[in-house]
Amino acid sequence: MRIPVTVLTGYLGAGKTTLLNRILTENHGRRFAVVVNEFGEIGVDNDLVVGADEEIFEMNNGCVCCTVRGDLMRILGNLAKRKGAFDGILVETTGLADPAPVIQTFYMDEDTFDACALDSVVTVVDAAHIETQLARGHEAVEQLVFADLIILNKSDLLSASELARVQFRINTVNPYARLVVAERCNVGLDIVLDRKSFDLTRLLSLEPELLTGDAAHVHDDGIADVSLVSDHPVDAGRFKAWLGELLKTKGQDILRAKGILDIQDSDRRFVFQGVHMLSEFSTGLPWREGEKRQSKAVFIGRGLDKEAITAGFAACTGGR
Amino acid sequence: MSDDSQIQGVSFWNFGVHATGCLFGTEGAVYFTLADGSVARVADPSCASADRFGLHGGGILCQAPAPSGGLFTGGDDGRLVQLAPSGESVELAALPGQWIEHLAVSPASAAMAMASGKNVFFFPGPDASGIDLGALPSSVGGLAFSPDGGLLAAAHYGGVTLWDFSAGQTSLARIDLRGLSLTPVFDPSGQYLAVANQEKCVSLIDLARNHVLELPGYARKPASLCWSAGGDTLLTSGNAGFTAWDIDREGGQSPLQTQFAQQEETFLTQVSAHPLFPVAIGGFSEGSVFIAELAAKAAVYVFNLEAHKVSALAWSADGMHACGGSASGVCFLALLPALLGA
Fold this sequence. Notes:
heterodimer; A: alpha/beta; Rossmann fold; 7-stranded parallel β-sheet; globular
């Protein structure tokens, strides 16, 4: 059994530490090892709190987006030796951190992958300031794009209409993450923990939270999502080759990719996910009898060529 | 261990937690360091009884034999501790909130070095206090003294930093290498320094010729490295079997890689060369332990540590015993004839 790791991210002051302290103090009978950047902020006496240094290393392939957290490799590797002393690991990133190197660490270091399973990336958002933060820099954008759970915190500071506007804005950046409205991070921990969001074998559907219809949404921050749907079975070999080439050439701009494919002559879903240039494929859950088989894929990134991606995907379905 | 537990000349223990290291003290005792902060000691290798010492609040991350007997341990409680053969322990350094991840001791000079995060501390002698050698560009991935104790190497992102203590004062040199370097190991002559690289290769540094060779051909990160007794062969983990690089010390030919004893659906995690003979012991991710004959580039199965990843291996200085441990805490001590007779 690999140790589940939950990554907590969010802009400065959004409430990450509040959420962390809630997870650590609530009576759930579980013990966590915590990797933090600031020791002082943890409100409980926990002997498994580890200070991290956010050492981001480029890999030798020369690609600037292929970065990993060197400190996390060491820390998770050593924590894994204490298996049984805790039930999960929480990693809190700094407010300005790009979550990609954290996620990529799990896929680029085999020791980390063998010992630990990335469970989810939870992004805590300050409802009152997220719009300004999104306009100010790319960090807030990346934190939303890489999240599978977004906690819209401090919602009590906004009126209902303001809150609806912020929700819509977040959804335009990442329509695929689960969005939960909260005050002082008062979300049920069953929502935060055990999400298994990166476990491809459990991926059943790929539905946007709110937005539907339009296949691509472009925003003022340059982030766009391209969603693809096909009722025709996909040729697995052709798709792998196409995706590999797409990520190799455009992976710097493609932040996230995910998909569930219907493969000809297969009773099981074929699933994939990608972070920048990295991709992972797996055989997913079987299609149920009578279930409508569809292939769906989504790409979120900057400056995506919707037409080229759509055409490339179509070619994998035999061009139909 | 099924039938393996009955092998004559081999003793097994299950300490119940991950064995982070093992070593032979200069006094002859065997030490297994464990992830619960304790050390298990077999004071007399001819007798199977082990006693246990709780030394750290967290896990033990590194260990090295103390020149006066016993061992030094560094832990994730930020403490450096010495356990004496008498069983008494003393705290030598404390860095609250930090991890002490790497230790190296020079049998030649009795100097010691430890690394915590980016910082390396040098202890010139047994009773000397630590000198902070300063912060490196990134966290340290391993420490090693040269055989004469004159050089200290620290691996990190971007290469290796070398401190030269031989001239009476400390001088520093940096060897630039791509990516994240780990686990520096000097050959017995001190001419070569082998360094593992995170990205599936080994860098071989010829210190005499100031030349670096990249040795590729790995399926995984080659995290365990050692030199054969004569220094003719560099042995590493990182593949489905033993990986050996024969070094042409005279002719200067490029090292030749041989992989042998490849196993299916597992990989070599630990390798340790015999201190006197062309023999090595290797451990696999599924618990198998093999003994290798380096001249023949062949290895035979000896026993299995209850299917748990082999996490540590070591030889005694006289080469008469080998010890090892696993991720589950199953550990062994074996007599050389028992291993060779397999």
